[in-house]
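re: that chain from earlier
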Amino acid sequence: MTDPFARVPGAVIDDAGLRHLGNPLGEQRALAAGRALAPLADRAVLSVTGEDRLSWLDSLTSQALARLAPGESTELLVLDPHGHVEHAASVLDDGETTWLIADRTDAEGLLGWLRKMRFRLRVDPVDRDGEYAVVGGTRSALAAVAAAAPAGLPLVWVDPWPEVGAGGWAYAAVEPHPGRERDWAEAIVPRAELETVADAVVSGDLALAGLDAVDALRVAAWRPRWSAEVDERTLPHELDWLRTAVHLEKGCYRGQETVAKVHNLGHPPRRIVALQLDGSDSGLPSHGDDVLLGYAVVGAITSAARHFEEGPIALAVVRRSTPVDAELLVRTADGAIVGAQEVIVPPEAGATANIPRLPRLGRRAG
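^ sequence. v structure.
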């Protein structure tokens, strides 16, 4: 499939989509200010129709969806029996269809799992990627797409991050300072509309930003993503994902016991941190690069970017025991980079249950 933005002057495109147009930092500024749109070719669109769709998704996932109102935005996680994250998706219902936006590398697995879980219920999960694409930006910027779209489209998912959703819980004290304010939304549009968007860019009527700019704003917002922050051991607590993707008071679902146990009685074994990186060199860490405390490996880089205000930054997942005031080193192919921590999930996260201590049997009172 030919990328419609390949004809835009300066476009740099790889397997994931449009990376940038020659000025990633300027594209970040325009995107954050609502002056640009970003085609999100690294996202895929799924849909679920049928009368049982919301109650069915509610029973399978971490989010309370049975009473999701048309137009309401949220997100869900699919967990394994031990509470580890297997799949993630943004969720929007239009009253007849539930729409899921998933990372492209996760979409096939998520769809396959949903199809296996249908049983006799009135639900029909479908891959809609051939029909629809995803465009991102601020809500005001996406109004330009809405004006040109057919009646009833686009469907706009508004990112709930970093607000705490109903039934959610925040471990991080996220402060909305410059670079962290993120009025982010993603519109599901007919694929044919991408040609119209490309025409507007070529004619100078619309500004465009690439995936590098999108990811830099995400990293600055401490926003976890399945394709970057998740591995086979990830618990949602480790990424502060209870904030928007988990409803702690809903009914039973796979992995719920672990979610409740870690949140109420224990601590997640790892925690996500933000790193302010030494900008002396031009290089950035890569996904999976070791994070060291002294000579000991304590974690790994999940995402890294060069932000238009904060400079080189990264997200990393480290051992819970890593001291919060420790200066960390990132071991890259080009040498070590110093990283100063910003605490996102603190070491004491979890253990929220207020359980009174009872005297031992046989111990005398008084």
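The mean pLDDT is 91.
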